[in-house]
Amino acid sequence: LQAYERRFPTCPLIPMFVASDTVNEYKSEDEAIHVIERRCKLDIDAPRLLKKIAGVDYVYFVQKNSLNRRERTLHIEAYNETFSNRVIINEHCSYTVHPDNEDWTCFEQSASLDIKSFFGFESTVEKIAMKQYTSNIKKGKEIIEYYLKQLEEEGITFVPRWTPPVACKSESSTSHPRRPVSPAINIPESATKEGLNNKEILNTSSSPSEPTAGTPDDKLDADYIKRYLGDLTPMQESCLIRLRQWLQETHKGKIPKDEHILRFLRARDFNIDKAREILCQSLTWRKQHQVDYILDTWNPPQVLQDYYAGGWHHHDKDGRPLYVLRLGQMDTKGLVRALGEEALLRYVLSINEEGLRRCEENTKVFGRPISSWTCLVDLEGLNMRHLWRPGVKALLRIIEVVEANYPETLGRLLILRAPRVFPVLWTLVSPFIDDNTRKKFLIYAGNDYQGPGGLLDYIDKEIIPDFLGGECMCEVPEGGLVPKSLYRTAEELENEDIRLWTETIYQSASVFKGAPHEVLIQIVDASSVITWDFDVCKGDIVFNIFHSKRAPQPPKKDSLGAHSITSPGGNNVQLIDKVWQLGRDYSMVESPLICKEGESVQGSHVTRWPGFYILQWKFHSMPACATTNLPRVDDVLASLQVSSHKCKVMYYTEVIGSEDFRGSMTSLESSHSGFSQLSAATTSSSQSHSSSMISR
């Protein structure tokens, strides 16, 4: 509040805010309530012609601030006085104490705009209003931080919390004694003299049964932050805790470390919704491609070890791991022709995973948070051969995947000895690189890196590689041309790409309209548990579980010519014979589960009988209009597109004994979630229990 009040009567950081006058003010006797109403004069950034038609140069707003020191809230209401019969603008802001940590401030803001008429310029006025409002929101944080810094420079870093006056009689008192306010709060006399902090006062007034702020679950330890995460503002700390807590409540897989969550928050300027979206997409991607295990399970081909001119080399002056890439000496065309795009991508992923591991090690070694690495790229030898179209295409795809799944891991990129052909390559790849990442690029032409502001500013002289004029022997492979004898045919490369695509515990399946994909599971022990984990990659599907006492016919491949499989590893298997009747030949053991595109589903089914269980993924058709037998317009349009009749799922199933299953046999539930909230009801029957978790 101290910082906020400094915006009046005018604010130099808001040029449109010309002046303000106090028109009404109220203070309660105990000074807990303070209401002030101001008339603000604004110079709206609008076309001169519009101002002339409207007949005004300035616009007036009325702003009412209601401060409640007892409840520790500040509510701000604003509405337009000018043209109030034509345009209605209402804005509401509130500052409140965070429910979990009273050292934090929560801020909420909302606004409404209703344009009844404005001389035929309604759409123009709407655009101006939205532009002005958006600009104010962006500057709001900047302004409050400006005045907070101003207070700190004046030596004001702490403002004592309001306390109710204590009822007492004084000999010098000539007025009526004030009545004590909130008598249930007992504040020691030393608190008013020495100024207890907010947390101590809260603990004084709280009952023992109430949870207090500052526990490890709702607040990060200051030493932990400094040691492993770096400097975080209270707002950034709050965002990290909220996103981590949301993951713990909704995500059933491996929870990423705080450092990794923080990278996604920083990549989206601590916008929780945006960070959550890209983090969830990345977690799904990591699970599908088993990226968490790539360093332990995948061995790079010998061609990569011999001809990929890149490797780790000590660290920079900030303690970041240093990766050296001699791109100019690397035969990108030969590597793509010998290995294919998928193998190159997988190798780059393993490099990034190794980088994350080295960051953790350096954090322990240097005693401070190291969350990114430095990359040194030597372009000596770069020529038009490196601009071979398939090679550039592979590079662009690698950049896209890395940008999406390893944000804020590149601390600095040093590009040395850039030749004349470099601007051509830069023009091709720069649009695919995030703006924040581009700011970390330092480009040196020729031998400029040896002068002031060059390599020595970022890397110790002792570890500058020998090929750059340093004294340190660098063990990075020198690259060179890949022998053409190692080249592979397009068919061989395609098969290799498919093998790498499907080299995972997950399988890919295509689901068509009228052609579901089905998986057969034979159960011998009736106490077994069937578990599944699948992602709906495209379209909407219905998931069913059936039981049959007899085995279905051998699976047959889908013969629909129009539905050819285009994605690597995709397949379609149908087990339930057309002549089988539900209820006679097989039975449904669980209610159907509708799963939307982008959802991730984890679940289990406790079997009651031996026999054959069939897991089915079926195309989900939109229901026709309830009031007519005619199909809806959307259905007709969808039927004209073959692609709309195809869905894709990535799935994994496993059968385990009940004694090995970690869940409770009597409390398994089916529930839906948008990867952020849980809903839906328990699905169970007298024959079985099942559990499913759906997440986007």
Report on this structure:
This protein has 18 helices and 25 strands. Residues 168-218, 557-569, 624-643 and 661-691 have low confidence and may be disordered. The strands form 5 sheets. Strands 12-22-14-20-25-23-24 form a 7-stranded mixed beta sheet, with no helix packed on it. Strands 1-2-3-4-5-6 form a 6-stranded antiparallel beta sheet, with helices on one face. It has 696 residues and is of the alpha+beta class. β5 and β6 form a beta hairpin. The chain is globular and about 85 Å long. The chain has 4 domains: 1-160, Alpha-D-Glucose-1,6-Bisphosphate, Chain A, domain 4, CATH 3.30.530; 220-288, N-terminal domain of phosphatidylinositol transfer protein sec14p (Helicase, Ruva Protein, domain 3, Orthogonal Bundle), CATH 1.10.8.20; 290-483, 3-Layer(aba) Sandwich (Phosphatidylinositol Transfer Protein Sec14p); 505-551 and 571-620 and 644-658, Jelly Rolls. GO terms for molecular function: RIG-I binding. Its main location: cytoplasm.
Descriptive terms for the model:
single chain; alpha+beta; Alpha-D-Glucose-1,6-Bisphosphate, Chain A, domain 4; Helicase, Ruva Protein, domain 3; Phosphatidylinositol Transfer Protein Sec14p; 4 domains; seven-stranded mixed sheet; six-stranded antiparallel sheet; 18 helices; 25 strands; 25% strand; CRAL/TRIO_N_dom
